[in-house]
Amino acid sequence: MLAFPAIFRCLKISPKSFFNSPFVFSIAFTDFSKSFKGVTTSTRSSAFSWSSVLSDHLKHKRLDEARLVFDRIPLPSVHLCTKMIVGYAENQRIEDALKLFDKMPARDVASWNSMIKGCLNCGDFNMARKFFDEMPERNVISWTTMMNGFLQVGKVKEAEHLFHEMPTRDIAAWNSMIYGYFSNGRAEDAMKLFDKMPCRNVISWTSMISGLDQHGRSDEALILFPQMVGSGVEPTSNTFSCVITACANAFALHPGYGLNCKHEDALKVFSDMIKIGILPNQSSFTSALNSSCELDTLDRGKVIHTVAIKLGLETDVFVGNSLTVLYSKCGNINSGVAIFKKIDQKNIVSWNSVIVGCAQNGCGMWTLTLFTQMIRAGVDPDEISFTGLLLACSHSGMLQKGRCFFKYFGQCQSVEVKLEHYACMVDILGRSGKLEEAEELVRNMPMKASSTIWLTLLNACRMHSNLELAEKAATCVFDLDPQCSAAYVLLSNLYAFTSRWSDVARVRGKMKQRGVTKQPGCSWVTLKGLRHMFRSGDRSHPLSDKIYQKLDWLGDKLKEFGYVPDQRFALHDVDDEQKETILSYHSERLAFGFGLISTVEGSTITVMKNLRVCGDCHAAIKLMAKIVGREIVLRDSNRFHHFKDGFCSCRDYW
User: Fold this and answer.
1) Helices 261-275 & 298-310 angle (0-180, nearest 10)
2) Nearest 10 degrees: CA dihedral of 331, 334, 337, 343?
3) How far apart are CA 19 and CA 3, in angstroms?
4) Pick from 105, 279, 409, 458: most CB atoms within 10 A?
């Protein structure tokens, strides 16, 4: 406090006017005291104190207060002037930076570099180039900054010229040029330059891994990682994040490669990252959780979730969004909603993730409630929000609400109604039996109906056994996509359901003639990181004998509960006994049987299926859940079914 009189004399103001000034109230009194701790009446100490206060204001983007302090400094150094210029430039106030630069009595190379960088950040490339050309002397930072400027505006040749003209190049210059090549789609040039580098650091390797991955060369990116480690360069959390993402992207490029081994690689990289003590960042968590989601491995996702909690990242918006998606896609919607509620600063992705998740899990009223909360929170819905609402109406049989939402968003200027929204509305009408209205909607669409739209209508016709309209819809699908196997299968199944076996043979003959192959139906259970797959009548699993014994036991129990197989779902022209046998060993039942003998008593069994669940299996599994006293979660190609105590969450509306 003894230093304050000296400060008042320097400011040329009275103590009373000082404490009533806006300057004092721009910072907390305690922060002010800390900033001036140790200030003496000496000029040198005062200069240090002003620099500290100036830095604090600039750090918190209080530019006007910072300028007030700057103008009170008797003879600001070149360093302080440069600091003020940087503050202006970083906050898009380039005009103020220019005025201050012009007033500087002396300038050093750092001042010039700051102006070049500031002009580039504010989008004034020509001014930046003018400053570079007028510089009395340049250092490696000057050359690298201007080179980055050329690369930002796509002038790669000019950037290459500067790179080769540089008197000296440090590793940052090499890294910048590599990054610039990738940014301008020149992956081959980046690789050639990387090979020529005299020395490389972790940024060099990480830029290459990330750049190759972003250019669809994820396999090559992954080859670099062991080379990097072998060269003695220690990876950072950002490196690991890029590697995990590359693993996931490599799988997307090669979906038939092994048992999703690239996602397995991504999870292994994440695990290794933890073991060697490198803390993962938000991007690493997001990529690892996405891989867990693709592998349907909720258990491994829970392990990653635990790590996020320990690091205090559970409430982070990026990590929280990925956790919400993971739990929702693995059928644990209660945990998904709980995670969503914990996210600190929810964005549109957060709301969409939980809205779509609830819709897919058959929680229609939850979806509507969350949408209402989203609007009240001031978040504007987008096309994905619209899709989530329509899905909820479709899966929960809310015909009138679906009509209202479709009409509302059709008049909404901020949301574009797309083909997928029409497909959802056709599905809503079709499931409700409004087939004529659904056909009218398709034929009166403002854009041309896609094969997906007609396929949706065809599926609705199958549900309501409308052969006449089904044949029209199938014809439209074949006109647009002659190789659409789903349309052949739906039409064939509809004929089989009504015992029109000659038509079944005709459709299957056309498929064979045109070389169309049917996607084989399969179901699976993921246990301890391993996916156990089953097909109808499959006996290839090592535990097949025990699985079939368990299903036979359940078959006897089902009959005690009055269950009678619906032989229409056998879809084969065989005798009744064979039909019953076929139904008893459908893939979803085999997967469920495996889950029963391989998991802890009382735990939830989660089964995934790549096609729509069989109607007879749906009825049987409801009773099976009651018999064994377990909750069964079944995800088919359309939605989740939660079976418990003889009931399904879909309420038989699916």
Assistant:
1) 30
2) -100
3) 15
4) 458
What is the structure's pLDDT at 572?
57
Residue 635 pairs in a beta bridge with 608, 640
Alpha carbons 633 and 635: distance in angstroms, whole number: 7
DSSP secondary structure string, 72-92? H-SS--HHHHHHHHHHHHHTT
How many residues are given for the chain?
654
Which of 217, 202, 207, 204 lies closest to 183, judged by CA? 207
Nearest to 607 by CA among 624, 592, 618, 597: 592
Average pLDDT, the chain: 85
Q: Is the dihedral of CA 140, 143, 146, 151 positive or negative?
A: negative
Buried b (16+ CB within 10 A) or exposed e, 417-440: beebbbbbbbbbbbbbebbebbbe
Where do we find the tokens 């530019």? 63
What are 119's two structure tokens?
A: 């002009």
Answer yes or no: are the C-beta atoms of 386 and 351 closer than 8 Å.
no
Beta bridge partners of 213: none
Residue 572: how many CB atoms within 10 A of its CB?
12
For the chain, the 3-state helix, strand and coil shares in percent, each to the nearest 5, are: 65, 5, 30
Report the run of H or E that residue 494 belongs to, with start and end.
Answer: helix 485-497
Find the helix packing angle between 467-480 and 435-443, rounded to 10°: 30
Model confidence at 2: pLDDT above 60: no
Among 476, 493, 495, 646, smallest CA distance to 562 is for 646
Report the b/e string of 315-352 with b at 16+ CB within 10 A. ebebbbbbbbbbbbbbbbbebbbebbeebeebeebbbb
The CA distance from 155 to 126, in Å, is 13
> Mind listing the pLDDT tens digit for each residue in 268-312?
878 887 887 777 888 888 888 988 888 878 888 999 999 999 989
How big is the CA angle at 173 (ends 167 and 178), to the nearest 5 degrees? 130
Range list of β-strands (E), 452-592: 522-527, 530-535
pLDDT in tens, 146-190: 999 999 889 999 999 999 999 999 999 999 999 999 999 999 999
Q: Which two tokens stand for residue 324?
A: 């919400």
Tens digits of per-residue pLDDT, 303-324?
999 999 998 999 999 999 999 9
Tell me how far apart the alpha carbons of residues 49 and 53 are, in angstroms, rounded to a whole number.
Answer: 6
- CA-nearest of 350, 361, 412 to 386 is 412
258, pLDDT greater than 50: no
199, burial (CB in 10 Å: exposed 0-12, middle 13-18, buried 19+): exposed
The letter for the amino acid at 559 is K
Please enumerate in sequence order all residues whose Cβ is within 8 A of that of 355, keeping only pairs 6 or more positions apart, or say none. 367, 370, 371, 374, 385, 388, 389, 392
Beta strands in 568-614 (DSSP E): 605-609
Instruction: Phi first, then psi: give them for residue 80, nearest 5 degrees.
Output: -70, -40
